[in-house]
Amino acid sequence: MRFLRTLLTGILWMSLVAIGVTTGASADCLSRCLGTCATSAFDNPYCQGVQTSCYAECPGKGSHDYGAIAYSRSTEASGWSNKRDTKEEAENVALEKCGKEASDCEIEVWFDRKCGAVAAGNEEISWGLGNTGREAQLDALEGCRQSGDHNCKVRTSACSRGRSD
Predict the structure, then answer these.
(1) Contact 120/152 with Cβ under 8 angstroms?
(2) Could you tell me which of 114, 102, 161, 104 has the C-alpha nearest to residue 139?
């Protein structure tokens, strides 16, 4: 029964695309690709597959949520970005924000639809990733401590969709 429902949903979706009901010709790649699954519940197995393939197929606007964190070793200044379409854009924004306070800022971590964090101690700087801000912070702290530095602290963190301190 589930297979039949999935098959019928797929046929309906393809029919709508063929007659041009789902989106206008000027819509972006992701909207065109998602079609009716853009408004359907993603618990539908067919739509889950469509979403996965569309995110892979449609680079750029709407298909990514890149973020980055830049950090200055000398001043401990930081800058972060999120909700960006490209990794390069995310890194540039983070460097620009950090660079207002320090000239030696470097990108420590970038992420896409995840969270990132930077931890630093007396000598070491480490970064971490996670599905939540807390996971990223713990990952960064663990990396810093494994290096032998015992004064590690989370310096900054951010998520693709917002701040995560």
Answers:
(1) yes
(2) 114
Contacts with 125 (C-beta within 8 Å, 6 or more apart), sequence order? 71, 73, 108, 118, 119, 144
The domain segmentation of the chain, as residue ranges, is 2-57, 66-163
Closest CA to 94 of 66, 115, 113: 66
Given a contact cutoff of 8 angstroms between Cβ atoms, the answer to whether 120 and 127 are in contact is: no
**For the chain, how big is the Rg over CA atoms in Å?**
21
Who contacts 37 (Cβ-Cβ below 8 Å, separation ≥6)? Answer: 13, 44, 46, 47, 50, 51
HSE-up (13 A, CA, CB side) for residue 94: 35
Tokens 């999120």: give the residue.
Answer: 82
Please write the tens of the pLDDT for every residue from 23-80: 333 346 666 777 777 665 555 667 767 766 666 666 655 567 899 999 999 999 999 9
Mean of the per-residue pLDDT values for the chain?
A: 78
Question: Alpha helices of the chain — where are they, by DSSP H?
Answer: 2-19, 29-34, 45-57, 87-99, 133-146
